[in-house]
Write a structure and sequence with these properties.
Layout lengths: L1 E4 L3 E5 L3 E4 L3 E7 L8 E9 L5 E10 L3 H28 L3 H30 L5 H14 L17 E3 L16 E3 L10
């Protein structure tokens, strides 16, 4: 089938299923067994009238399509937040003296909170920072952890700065590893014919 993400909801073709945005309780995306697969599963929990929820599971969605899923979920969240804010506004304004007093108190609290943020920023500026030597050491450490072949930094027997490519004109001595076309500077030795 085909899964279509729309502002109004979610539509699945063959068999035709439409889930309005207002009825979507949760969206879960993932793969149960292994994270290294190319496909993921999408689980939609639909809030039905009453306390019952129904689940729709769509399997084998290509990871390349996750951007559309994330965009749909983001739009869904933004629409719900906007809906909640608009639902809260009439209650806050209320037209009564209590509503006006509540709005005034909220404004006063926001002003006090913004003053605290300015103090926080000043405090962060005064905080001691790493010295230049410490930053260089941490940069070197992170460089050593990364390996040129994309591995997790396990010891391959070679350091990045010690690797050179063989030109074919040199006599080399290798340590028997699988790294063809590489040698270490420390293994360069000149042979003398005697």
């Amino acid at each position: 089938g085909m899964l279509v993400f729309m502002r109004a909801g979610l539509f699945f073709l063959k068999p035709a299923v439409f889930v309005p945005s207002s009825e979507i309780a949760s969206v879960t995306c993932g793969r149960g067994g292994s994270a290294s697969t190319r496909y993921v599963d999408l689980l939609i929990e639909q809030a039905a009238e009453g306390s019952k929820t129904s689940r729709l599971e769509f399997s084998n969605i290509d990871r390349g399509h996750l951007g559309a899923v994330q965009g749909f979920v983001q739009n869904l969240l933004e629409a719900r937040e906007k809906e909640e804010r608009s639902a809260d506004e009439p209650r806050a304004k209320g037209g009564s003296e209590e509503g006006a007093a509540g709005t005034a108190n909220a404004t006063k609290e926001e002003e006090e909170d913004s003053d605290n943020e300015e103090e926080d920023e000043t405090y962060r500026d005064d905080a001691p920072s790493k010295s230049q030597d410490e930053e260089e050491e941490s940069d070197e450490d992170s460089d050593e952890e990364e390996d040129s072949d994309g591995s997790d930094g396990a010891d391959s027997g070679f350091e990045e700065e010690d690797l050179t490519l063989l030109s074919g004109d040199e006599d080399t001595e290798t340590d028997g590893s699988d790294c063809e076309g590489r040698k270490t500077r420390s293994s360069k030795r000149r042979r003398t014919d005697s």
